[in-house]
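Hey,
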Amino acid sequence: MRRLVWIVAFALALSLSPLDRWLDGTMPRLVLLAIPVWATLGILAIHRTGRVWSLGNPHGLTGLAWALGTFAFWMIPRSVDAIRTSGIADQLMHASLFLAGAALAASWRGMPFVIRGVLGIYGAAMTIALGFVYTSYSALLCGTFNLAQQRLTGSWLLRVSPAIVLLVIVTGVRSLRAASRRGDSRRVRSGPPVPGTGAVARTPLEQEVLP
């Protein structure tokens, strides 16, 4: 609980500080630093709390839908312009991305491995697609920034995308290993099946206690 209070206090201080205006000052900083920072603060606020919230769905799909919808909305060029020109939109971005990160972290442990993989692939694909759009589009998409900043943002998104792909692979391998260890421990506790019966053999302690 203390960790959550400290992170929320830090987030409030950051939203009112000159550092926030610096993060929003250029398109590369806004897209590549500000947006991930606010989502990361939400993740850190919930991470390691030991809680798994279904958020209305046993597989964590509600938190996943909130996170994906929030990220997609604030990555739209018109939304990026709103963050730069409107203080209200800027504060709404802070709050929504913080909650999106918290919802994603709270739902993560309840998500099946397949959904985690799809989420990672979607994130990598969206990063690559935005990178190509920003670098190859000749027109200015965000009116509050210039074309040079737009292309620089796209080139950095393309540079970051391999790291996202690698993170997806590493996370998938770790999840598979964890699932394998859990399956092995359950088989050890249950004992080997009795040949010819299909039944599970009891451990010596179970044979003494159970009839």
